[in-house]
Each structure stands twice: as structure tokens, then as C-alpha cells.
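ZP: hey, is the 1-deoxynojirimycin complex queued? I don't see it on the tracker
AM: it wasn't, my bad. submitting now with these inputs:
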Amino acid sequence: MTALWWQMGVIYQIYPRSFQDTNGDGIGDLKGIERRLDYLAGLGVDAIWISPIYPSPMADFGYDVASYCDVDSRFGALADFDDLLAQAHERGLKVLLDFVPNHTSERHPWFVESRSSRDNLKRDWYIWRDPAPDGGPPNNWISDFGGSAWEWDKATSQYYYHAFLKEQADLNWRNPAVRAAMYDVMRFWFDRGVDGFRIDVLWHMVKAADFPDNPPNPDYRPAMGDMHRVLQLHSTDQPEVHRLAADMRAIADSYGTEGRGERVLIGEIYLPVDRLMHYYGQERAEVHLPFNFQLVDAPWEARALATLIADYEAALPPGGWPNWVLGNHDRPRVATKRGQAQARVAAMLLLTLRGTPTLYYGDELGLTDVAIPPAEVQDPRELREPGLALGRDPVRTPMPWDASANAGFTTAKPWLPLNADWPTRNVARMTTEPHSILRLYRRLLATRRAHPALSIGGFALPGGGGQRARICAPAWRGASHRGAQSRRTAASVGVAGLGGPVSAALGHCRRCSDGRRRCLAPPGGRGRDSNGRLTSSTGRTLTCASPCWRRSPGARRRAITVPGSW
Ligand code: NOJ
Ligand code: CA
């Protein structure tokens, strides 16, 4: 196996409005990201994914695209993007953009044309339907932001479909001209040197051809939000979407084949694991990484996590590359959900699991959700269904860089408030604190880079009872990478609401006399008796099929201990 950059690498998501402002308008911009590239390289990530930067009325903060091949003036200009890309590449950082193919802004020239008349050539580029016999919407589909997903267009007496805001009209991907135009958009950015895309709501892109009603959700409760009144059976995850994903993959792959650099596609897909796996492709390859969001919502308990991880690994199709995520710009931050102490454990878990991890900006500081005063709410999700904790502003607040005014993010009023603890929870301060979560992230990223077994090793989940589950990245099998000497390196990470310090040790992973693979923790560690002998959950002494690290002088061993009381 030859490992590719996106298999070895760690991705860092940047929400561009909130990363660094350079022109004093309170909104982050491309020059700001460029200014912070050294921070990112120093942190130890390999790639950045930038949420949408295209011209947009910002009804959904860039996920309403009015022009696919340009940059919104609030973020800069195309030339700024080219500079950013060149500077990132110079530092060995890859750059991924957000591709938003399911819908455009209602102000996109395509939609302006489409709604101009029923016989406009672009009419069929979007999804137009006559009213139901009672004059109401064509079916019961509900927008993800609440309310009917159909908007009445008085001028042409038809409804158009929008899975999100009415300002975000869904494209009709069954139309070949739409496909051709959108594939050209991908080529436009790939030709500029972009290393990949995160594909927005990939599983939404095709709807059932005859638009049947969605079934009611028997588990619906109002606190879930209006969209959950029905199950999105006919409006998402249709079989025809796989052809689109395969077409996009073929375009991405053509660059690698032509020797122009491997490109990667990451699909945003919220589906159960068995459905998710289809997006790796069957006859034809689809996205490289269907985003795996399971850790975001998982019960934070060792056994449950171990099962979830093992089940995901078992479900992967042959050649399917795993990936893991703790949060993003739509979901509560990990430090809010799990608390500061467990945010550290989560970091250790994320960065020692095999596969490709994606970090969300600010999580390396332990940023928490910021309460937004009602008068300052910006997110349409919150404005449309207030008070249900569905709003996303709290997780999109500015990056606190230092203790200067506005945390070094801007010289003006930031577009969203800063975290209240920014005078201490900021990059400059936490860089100097030996036990800060930022320093932990740096160490973990450095360790991951130094030990390819962590990213591209195999996976085994040693059994055994007790509270602690070990997640193990054992021997790296046959990869032809420069770090082949780390073949015997393994990681073990304790996870759970344990009462003591949590540590991760790099040792060996071996098959033992009970047939299970184990990460060999240091003597005295859990799973060892006082003489350092490996024991089973029932206290039986086990022997290793091959020498353990204590007897193999060439073995590399390193331990990370997270200090603090839990
Ligand atoms: C998913 C994006 O992550 C979210 O922020 C956005 O509102 C919707 N897609 C609509 O594009
Ligand atoms: Ca700015």
C-alpha cells in the first residue's frame, strides 16, 4: 500500500468569517487565513478545508452561492485566493474548498433566469412543480430550516423546491446541463490547484422522481425542530445520487492520473453507517471520505465508543478509508458537549484512531459554545426556530489569538461575540502553558506524524472486561512509507469517565495467548499485574505470541500523560 496525503494527513476546518480579519470590518478574510498559515503549519495539520468563500448574499453565510467561480468581496478576491493557495502549498499545506452543489442562491444568475418564465431555457435547472389540487405545496416535504420546502412563485404560478432556506433553491441534478455546468465548476478550482472539496449535503442532491409524500416520523417531538416531523425517505439518499458521486470522483481522479496531484473528495452525509458506506462506491468509486460524524453524537462512555468504532471499522468496504470528526460549524463544540477534561480525551482518541481526522478551528483551544444575546443572533436556523438550541452562531465565534483588543481577531467589533474567557483562552497564552489543551494537540499531532502506524496502521479492538476500552492502532501492515521503522509502534488510549489521569502510551500491539490483539501498556498499567505480566480481564496471565516491548530493545516507546485532576 502506498499511503496518499489525505490518508496520512490531518484536516483542519476553517470558518472563514471567524478566523482572522485583516481589513477591520469584523469579518475574517482570505488574507487573514494567509497570515495564520504559520500557526497552522506549526500546529501540525496537513490540510485546511475552508467553508464557502464564494460571492453570496449570505442568507446562509456562504452556503447560498451566487457565483461558483469567484470570491466574495468580503473575503477578498480571486488573486487573494491564489496567493493563499501558493503560500499554503509552500508550507506543505493542502487546501480544500467547500463545494455546494445541491442548491444555489436565489440570486444566482441561473435561478434568476429560471424563474423569469416557464419556458426559459434554465427553467428545468431547478425543481419547479404545480400546486397540489388544493392549491397548496406539491407534497409534505419540510425544509431543514423548518416550514414547507416549497416556495410559491407568483409570477410563474409554480412552486420551487428548497431543502434549506427559500433563498437556496435546489438544482435539478437530473438535468444533464446542470451536471455539465457544475462539473466545470469543480474543474475550475482543481485547475487553479485546489487539492479537494468537502461536498455540501451530498445525500440531498437527488430527489425521488415522482415526489411522493415523506412518511411521518413516529418519534417526532417539537424540540427536535420542524424538519423532523417527517422522515426524509424520498427527499434524500436516492439511488441516482451515486452516479453523481462517481462522476465527481472520476473528475478528481483524472488529476491524479494525469500526474497533476491527488485530489480528495469528502462528502457531507448524515446517514446511518450502513447507508453511509454506499458513498464509498460500489461498481464505481465515489467519495474518498464520506464524513463519519458518529463521535459527535456518541454516548461518551468507553464501551459504547469502542463498539461504535469497531462497528464502523467492520462496516468499511474493501479499500474504504476511515475518517473521524468531533465537530464542525453546524454542531455543538466538543468542549461544550463533553467538558474540558473529556475534550482532551476526545483529542487523544481522534488523533490516535487510524484514518483521516478533521479538526474544527478553535477546538484545539477547548473553545466552548458562546451564548449569543438574542439581539445579536445571525444564524437563520436560530432566527426561524428560536429557543430550541438549533442555532449555529455559538460554534462560529471568532478565533481568539492573543490578549490584545478583540483577541487579535479584528480591530473592529467582531461579527459575533468572542468567548468570554478569551483573555486567557487564546493561542498566544496557551502556547506558553505547558499543560494547555493546545500544547496537547501539538504533541498529539507531532506524535501522529512521527508514527505512521497511528494514521495508516491496522485496527484491532482488544476484548476484555473492565471499564476501560483500549483503542488500538497496531502494526502498520506493508505500507511503503518512509516511516517503516515504526512497524512495531502501537497506540493505546483509555477513554471513559474514569476517575484518574488518562494516559496514552505508544507500545506494541501483539496477538496474545487468548487470541486477541492487545496494546501492551507499560508495566503496572491496567491489564498488567504488579510484575508487569499481561493479564486478561479475569486476571489470567497471558503470554504474547511475540516478544513484548520490554524484551525487544529495538522497540520504540513513548508515553503521553494528560495532567490534571478529573
Ligand atoms: C450543510 C452546511 O454544513 C450547513 O452549514 C448549511 O446550512 C447547509 N448544508 C445548507 O447548505
Ligand atoms: Ca475582513
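AM: back. The radius of gyration is 25 Å.
ZP: great, adding it to the tracker
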